[in-house]
Inverse folding.
């Protein structure tokens, strides 16, 4: 597409205000806006043909984007350029996946994408939305937890804009942090770049402070190797897993049932999000591992390269992942076990 003004975008769902702001600032035309969007942006109805439709994913962790191929591609490229950790899955030719996604239909000359918005992308979208409407910190994350509570908080914010830090903090504490109680079970949503959701062994909370969850995960019997370590997972083995909100590394230390350290794995991922009873991130494939009394090493660089080649991960995000892996390896080399 030669002129971005040619693109006609209809946006619906939780991300509509932020995306409408971004698209409008980049000369895309918003058509058939909702009543709320019309008021916020002073937009006319515009009933012309839709070039691209944007709707929420069912899990509210991103969007589906479908329509005329050149227009859809131009929108996706903008989002790649602006959102720091967006994950892009081209669904155009994967009809087996598309037919179950009710609202997506792809015809010749069209394209369809599944875009995941991890923590960094949500924060950026929060900043866009705040330019148009009162917005608490963490708006797009917390809306998927308790939409009504977010709307209540933002109605208070409209009357007291300087209270944003305080209102945002209280909202997060109430919706998320108060759920992080000792002994509670936490699920780990380990999302692969291609979209597979891997639920790792759940953990029980040992502690929570400074936005950091420490949990113990006990493993069942089975002669399976720990990823990257080359040692067997045995009956009674357990992991101490540390998840700090907003950080790019999830840390696992693996122990035998008698407390002997077997090794550790530092998973490089998009910044960790905490939700009630679960954490979530997108795995960026590359890891740093260290066997007990051995030097650390970076593994699975080929998987990161493959994610870039397939278009899931941008080159800039891959470079960030590699930099984090190298920093983690260097830190572990300096750390005495």
């Amino acid at each position: 597409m030669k002129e971005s003004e040619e693109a006609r975008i209809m946006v619906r769902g939780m991300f509509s205000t932020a995306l409408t702001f971004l698209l409008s600032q980049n000369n895309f035309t918003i058509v058939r806006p909702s009543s709320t969007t019309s008021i916020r942006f002073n937009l006319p109805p515009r009933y012309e043909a839709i070039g691209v439709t944007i709707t929420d994913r069912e899990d509210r962790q991103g969007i589906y984007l479908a329509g005329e191929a050149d227009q859809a591609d131009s929108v996706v490229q903008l989002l790649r350029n602006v959102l720091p950790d967006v994950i892009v899955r081209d669904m155009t030719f994967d009809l087996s996946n598309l037919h179950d996604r009710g609202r997506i239909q792809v015809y010749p000359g069209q394209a369809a994408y599944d875009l995941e918005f991890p923590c960094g992308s949500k924060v950026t979208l929060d900043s866009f939305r705040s330019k148009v409407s009162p917005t608490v910190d963490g708006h797009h994350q917390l809306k998927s937890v308790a939409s009504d509570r977010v709307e209540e908080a933002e109605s208070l914010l409209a009357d007291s804009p300087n209270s944003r830090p305080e209102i945002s903090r209280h909202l997060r504490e109430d919706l998320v942090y108060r759920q992080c109680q000792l002994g509670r079970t936490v699920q780990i949503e380990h999302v692969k770049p291609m979209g597979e959701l891997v639920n790792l062994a759940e953990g029980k909370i040992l502690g929570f402070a400074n936005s950091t969850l420490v949990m113990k995960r006990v493993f069942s019997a089975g002669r399976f190797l720990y990823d990257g370590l080359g040692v067997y997972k045995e009956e009674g083995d357990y992991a101490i897993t540390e998840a700090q909100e907003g950080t790019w590394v999830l840390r696992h230390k693996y122990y035998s049932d008698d407390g002997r350290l077997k090794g550790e794995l530092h998973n490089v991922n998009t910044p960790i999000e905490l939700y009630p009873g679960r954490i979530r991130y997108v795995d960026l494939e590359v890891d740093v591992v260290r066997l007990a009394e051995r030097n650390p090493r970076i593994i699975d660089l080929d998987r990161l390269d493959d994610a870039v080649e397939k278009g899931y991960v941008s080159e800039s995000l891959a470079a960030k992942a590699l930099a984090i892996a190298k920093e983690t390896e260097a830190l572990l080399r300096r750390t005495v076990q």
Remarks:
- Residues 4-121 form one domain.
- The chain has a mean pLDDT of 92.
- The longest strand covers residues 278-291.
- The two ends are 56 Å apart (CA to CA).
